[in-house]
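Chapter review: from sequence to fold.
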Amino acid sequence: MALIPSIMNIKEFFRKLIRPVVMFNCLGMILVTLLLGIGVYFGLDLYTNHGDDIEMPDLYGVNLDVATKKMEALGLRLEVIGKACRSQMPENAIVMQSVAKGGFVKKGRVIEVHINTLNPIVKIPEGVVGNCPRLEAEAILTNLGFQLTPPEYVVGETRDWVLQIKAAGKVVKPGTPVSVKTPITIVLSDGTTQETYNGSDSIYYDAFMDEPEYNTYHEEVGYEEAETEAHVVEHEEE
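The token string follows.
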């Protein structure tokens, strides 16, 4: 007899569930969900300009004004970020572009370029010191018109990583105007320095710290003296 009220409650629940108002609300929720999904799909498609990829043309040797109009017609923009000196090319001809020929970009993309100047004074580019391997740095500086001497090596962690740039034997900072007739030397890391402990290495570091030989050495020599010796060696090499 106790099951009869339960059965009646279940029947009453389904009777209310299939009422027109409830069914209409459920269908409305499903319809709204579908519309939102369709809206998000087409909205993302428009936002990312899907299908509007533009193939990058070759701008090498093209006059800046001509290239600017060409890019505007494609929906792209040009920004001059530096100059190079190529005596065999006309003034304001493009010598480097941030997106290579044949690459695909979206409309509205800003393309960074270097233009030619007949003035032999060119700034040392940003982003080379501390951010480039040897081959990339040599390509950038050569494209700007600089004449490179054999590189120098100093003590450092990563082999062939650019640490400094020298002009006529003196260290120059990025952005410094230098004549392209001045010999440029790239100072590279020789890869002989081991990485120092950064506080998150393995537990074997703690065991090493407990070694008597390690503690005795640093009590006799000390960190400050070791660092001073390193600076002296680096100065002598320069």
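Two observations follow directly from the output. Residues 201-238 have pLDDT under 50 and may be disordered. DSSP finds seven helices and eleven strands in the chain.
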